[in-house]
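Long-time lurker. I teach an intro course on protein structure, and each term I like to show students one example going from raw sequence to a predicted 3D structure in token notation. This year I'd like something fresh instead of my usual example. Would anyone be willing to generate the tokens for the chain below so I can use it in lecture? Attribution to the forum is fine with me.
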Amino acid sequence: MHLPLAISMGEPAGIGPDIALMAWRDRADHRLPPFYVIGDAALMEARAARLGIGVPIVPCLPEETRDTFAFGLPVLDIGSGLDDRPGEPTPETGGVVIEAIRTGVEHIRAGRAGAIVTAPISKAVLAAAGFTHPGHTEFLGELARAFRVGPVRPVMMIWSETLAVVPVTIHIPLASVPERLTTSLIVETGAIVAHDLVTKFGIARPRIAVCGLNPHAGEDGLIGREDIEVVAPAVAELNRIGIAATGPHPADTLFHPAARATYDAVLGMYHDQVLAPVKTIAFDEGVNVTLGLPFIRTSPDHGTAYSLAGTGTARPSSMIEAIALAGRLAARKATS
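-- Reply from a regular --
Happy to contribute to a lecture. Here you go:
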């Protein structure tokens, strides 16, 4: 019997509570595995009432999730009776948001949860509360040290059934990308992607398409030298160590259906180069998966959406996909 999934509540003023509630409501339609929410039970109950969707909130421990899941949404209550104020973020909620993530990871380490699914957070709210990490990914990398598996380098992948992408550089200014981009960074990222596609996704020999940095992959050096001097050597090294990598490819011709049939994942040089295509092609189905961790973490591929919080108009599809994918990956890990 597989362990339940832990869901961190995310930013209380955003749609995290909404989509967690809706995912439980729609659990049978999508055959979702049992999960529990880590957060504020009173707020979850108030949000359910506000949405009018009739989801019973059942405070419980992770071990009670399976028995509880059929008739109510299990919630591990770590809050202090937060007021339900959708669309009105405040730094006072930052502690609960951070603790929910920390608790979920600790539950995995202790064998109480099979994976963690993180609802959207507000980086600005957490920064105001003293949070020093750029985002979820970096914080999870720090928490992974408790697993004592050696150096951890988390890598962000946006996954969907039709397209999976990984940016080599993530949350940095575009002007800083050329100086931060190195052959070794591309190789390290590509190796982590290939490893996890094998071990977590069960793809025997992953095919990785590598984007060039410049338009037309530099046009043989006419539009910048980075693709010749930095990216191409990385592709060669990836192949030398046994990874099926191609490129550097012009990014503007890499995402149409015929091209997508030739690879399992795209390695992009910067954030918007690959996130813009995947969010265009699979906006409602995209899932953020953190590779390179000793545990499974997924998340909906969208933000807090304050304007939708508490209105009943948020779409839970990305959260549902994140839960479903986490369940499949956790089940595969448990049997491998």
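Some talking points for your students: DSSP finds 13 helices and twelve strands in the chain. The two ends are 14 Å apart (CA to CA).
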